[in-house]
Write a structure and sequence with these properties.
This protein is mostly beta strands. Helices cover about 0% and strands about 50% of the residues. The protein is built from no helices and eleven strands. The strands form two sheets. Strands 2, 4, 5, 6, 9, 10 and 11 form a seven-stranded mixed β-sheet that branches. A four-stranded antiparallel β-sheet has the order 1-3-8-7, with no helix packed on it. A hairpin with a 6-residue loop joins β4 (about 35-40) and β5. The protein is globular and about 40 Å long.
Length: about 120
């Protein structure tokens, strides 16, 4: 089980960009699914983007065309490039590795705040 640490969050104006990183304590080569989730105040956590080991990606409809998920197995890091940010993108962003598996891992989250 790897430990995950997110970084890159912050305060940005609407229309701006941020790049989130999720550093793993060990190799992510054998991890099948890596996800980014977010949780807005008063709302349930939602899946934002997923990437599988083969490179296929999936996105929530609300972020398609604006966010890009990627993984660098050599650096044991997951990324989320977020462009054209909107106030509704505000929340705590979490990365997860094989979250549906018994040995899955979650990070502690990084805050993203988008001002209008």
């Amino acid at each position: 089980q790897v430990q995950l640490v997110e970084s890159g969050g912050g305060l940005v104006q609407a229309g701006g960009s941020l790049r989130l990183s999720c550093a793993a304590s060990g190799s992510i080569f054998s991890i099948n699914v890596m996800d980014w989730y977010r949780q807005a105040p008063g709302k349930q956590r939602e899946l934002v983007a997923s990437i599988i080991s083969g490179g296929s990606t999936n996105y929530a409809d609300s972020v398609k065309g604006r966010f890009t998920i990627s993984r660098d197995n050599a650096k044991n890091t997951l990324y989320l490039q977020m462009n054209s940010l909107k106030p509704e993108d505000t929340g705590v962003y979490y990365c997860a590795a094989d979250p549906d598996e018994p040995g899955g891992s979650w990070g502690r989250g990084t805050q993203v705040t988008v001002s209008s």
